[in-house]
Structure formats: structure tokens, C-alpha cells
Design a protein that fits this description.
Pfam families: HI0933_like
InterPro entries: BaiN-like, FAD/NAD-bd_sf, RsdA/BaiN/AoA(So)_Rossmann
Number of helices: 5
Protein name: Flavoprotein, HI0933 family
Helix content: 10-25%
Shape: globular
Number of strands: 9
Structural class: alpha+beta
Domain RsdA/BaiN/AoA(So)-like Rossmann fold-like: 2-122
Strand order of the largest sheet: 6-9-8-7
Distance between the termini: 34 Å
């Protein structure tokens, strides 16, 4: 994945003639519908002869001389290569499981400790009490993490703490016990 950059994806979008526009912080949005991107991805999978199986639980994965052998609920599948896109652990309600992490460990891949990212910050008393009157107020700000990473965007005061684009972005750089400045 490291070899496939955002520029490669933008080139793909352009080849399919999907019109888009840029919002703040380089965020790109389809002029028409995000369904166009879904359709593009499905078409690319069809061109690549990708086999998609839905509602198939992977029970085990074994490395073979020819690639991989997967035991699914109800069948066995052989593949020359394997792409695992199992999501993260943050949303169990959406079916998130530790499958991808366990598989990486099974094959000796380095697994980094997980932590929340793209999340709001919750405040504790007395800071929460001091900011309660601001709940619902959004203000422009520059938020900087201890490593120097910063984002210039809005902060939204909520009934639990801080949210908004700047906070959600900086949360990926913040370390527990660390400080963010604005």
C-alpha cells in the first residue's frame, strides 16, 4: 500500500472522469455522488478478476508453496496472494474484530499497539464545567501536538469536551498524557 499514493488514486478518479472539488485541508469530494467511487472500485475489481465473497467467515489462513489456503465457513479457497482489509477495533457494532491483528501476528508481522484516532477529546472537571456554556460554539483555531504537527481548522465545543475538524485531525497525533496547544 505504501507504493500506492493519494496521487495514484486521484489519477484513477481522473481516468474515470469523476468530477470532484477540494474543500479545506485538501479534502476532496465528488461533485455528484460518492457512489461513483464505489462503482469505479467495483469495476477495477472486475477488471482485475478479483473474487469477492460476502458473508464468508475466514476460519484459518495457511501459507503454502503456491500462496495461501483459506478455510471459510463452508469451503476452502486457494490464492496466490492475499489482501487483508479487516478494519480496526474501534467499531465492534459495525463488525470490527481483531482478526487482522491476529493474522498479522500469525505471519510474524510487526503489530503496533492500537489507540484511538480521529476522535473528539473529552474534558474532565473543572475544565469541562468551565466550557459547558460554550457547548455548540465553533471557533477557528490552530491546534498543535507536542511533536509540532498542527492543523488550522475549526474547534467545536461539545457537552463532553472538544470536537470539530482540528480536534479530530490532531487526535491522531496526540499521545496519552500529552498536551495539545491552541
Amino acid at each position: 500500500m505504501a507504493r500506492y499514493t493519494q496521487w495514484d488514486f486521484i489519477d484513477l478518479i481522473n481516468r474515470y472522469g469523476i468530477a470532484y472539488h477540494e474543500k479545506t485541508l485538501g479534502q476532496l469530494f465528488c461533485d455528484d455522488s460518492a457512489q461513483q467511487v464505489v462503482d469505479l472500485l467495483v469495476q477495477e475489481c472486475e477488471l482485475g478478476q478479483v473474487v469477492t465473497r460476502l458473508r464468508s467467515e475466514v476460519l484459518s489462513v495457511e501459507k503454502t508453496d503456491q500462496g495461501f489456503e483459506l478455510a471459510l465457513n463452508g469451503e476452502s479457497v486457494s490464492a496466490r496472494s492475499l489482501v487483508v482489509a479487516s478494519g480496526g477495533l474501534s467499531m465492534p457494532g459495525l463488525g470490527a474484530t481483531p482478526f487482522g491483528y491476529k493474522l498479522a501476528e500469525q505471519f510474524g508481522l510487526k503489530v503496533l499497539p492500537t489507540r484511538a484516532g480521529l476522535v473528539p477529546f473529552t474534558l474532565h472537571k473543572p475544565l469541562l464545567e468551565q466550557s459547558q456554556a460554550l457547548s455548540g460554539v465553533s471557533v477557528p483555531a490552530v491546534v498543535t501536538a507536542e511533536d509540532g504537527t498542527s492543523f488550522r481548522e475549526s474547534i467545536l465545543f461539545t457537552h463532553r469536551g472538544l470536537s470539530g475538524p482540528a480536534i479530530l485531525q490532531i487526535s491522531s497525533y496526540w499521545q496519552p498524557g500529552g498536551v495539545c496547544e491552541h
